[in-house]
Design a protein that fits this description.
Layout lengths: L1 H15 L9 E2 L5 H4 L14 H4 L10 E17 L5 E4 L11 E8 L11 E8 L2 E6 L12 E4 L2 E10 L4 E11 L9 E6 L8 E7 L2 E14 L5 E10 L2 E11 L2 E12 L2 E12 L3 E12 L9 E3 L4 E2 L8 E13 L7 E12 L17 E13 L3 E2 L3 E2 L10 E13 L2 E3 L9 E17 L1
Antiparallel strand pairs: 1-6, 2-3, 2-4, 2-27, 4-5, 5-8, 6-7, 7-10, 8-9, 9-12, 10-11, 11-14, 12-13, 13-16, 14-15, 15-18, 16-17, 17-20, 18-19, 20-21, 21-22, 22-25, 23-24, 25-27, 26-27
Amino acid sequence: MRGHQWLLSLVLFFILCPQLGHAQALRFQPQSATAAGQGNAFVAQADDASAIHYNPAGLSQVSGIQVVTGTTLVGGSVEFTSPTGIDSRGDFGGSVANPPPSYSYVSANLGSLGLDRLSNVTIGLGLNSPYGLNTRYPLDGPFNTAVTSAALPLIAIKPTVAYKINDQLAIGVSADIYTFASFMGQGHAEQKQVGTGALAGASIEANGNGTGAGATFSLLYTPLRNSDGKPIASIGLVYRTQAVVPLNGSLLVNGAKVADASTSLVLPQIYTGAIAIWPVRTSEREWKVELDVEYVGWKSNRNLDIHLSSGGVIPQPQQWDTVPVVAIGTEYKWLNPSWLPHWDVAVRSGYTRTENPVPDTTFNPATISLSANTLSIGTGFVCKGPAKFLGLVPCGGASALWPKAIGFDAAFQEWFYESRTITGNRDPSVDGTYHAYVHLGTVSVNLMF
């Protein structure tokens, strides 16, 4: 029996060896509508509950209790042309990715909870999907032995605390717990492809789930404020540690389990520096401009070796590179304008440049590993006091159980990927030219108590 298991492992090695590089999936940057509308340039602003994700130290700016929750609709396609002229097209599980990436954040300043001595401390909890993947290709496509579909419905749980040292400096830290949940897709990572050789035409699936943890450390430095105490220049610094998520699951052939399988998903460490300035910040208008620069340590993704219960190992070299991400964003606000009293109105725009970290030799169509230029636009509304949200819901109430203000934000992004021609891949069926585009819209509601 042991000999048969090793034979199976050998067969699976030749079938799957080039194909499982999808697990280092797309890093999904838009994690709030406010930030997405500014090209994700929000680290130095970080002035609502979504600071839990962007810059935990920024949570020190959020008074009272605040809840931000939203969802994102993502669509687009990947187009492939082989060296011989064969065309194929993939998508993200349909015209709109399902389940949609979503996010929720809640924060509370301890002073607002009656703990006056701890008024410099703000705590929070976030739930979002900063890494994810959902791609699908035709079952009879030119690289169907590489991938026909892949999914990584990974979620992050982020307990967070921020401490305001003084009016200029705040620090923050969050635990980043990465895991899977049954309400997100299949509740595990998976990739499917068509078998070759002894398993020609068979449906092959590898899946697995697990839990890993990292941490985020950050600071927010505000050297300049206006006469009302609001920032007119801020600097944000954020460090996200590497996190390793062990994946334990199964190898299936035509739906039948043939072996236990395990590997480790390595999420990168990320260094971020950001600066924001407000050329205009008065009681009537605000204008912010921000620049964020990140270095994403995909270099840690050296391999994704698959360990089988039979004792075999399927080597999966990745050899990804560390790459920069540059984001520029702006926001213009009208505060309680005469044409819309008791409301604040914001318009936003931004640009993000993301570099490709994956070399030709280990490229996999499951992940859109192409350099991208992203254009963003957005808007936001906050109603307060006697104003009514959507003309029906009172925006402010005397009860502690009713918010003092209600905000609504929306953003749209278009990702323009640069065409890429893959040559010399470990799986020759993957060689060819790839074109891709992604468009997304995200909306959120902000309740301020």
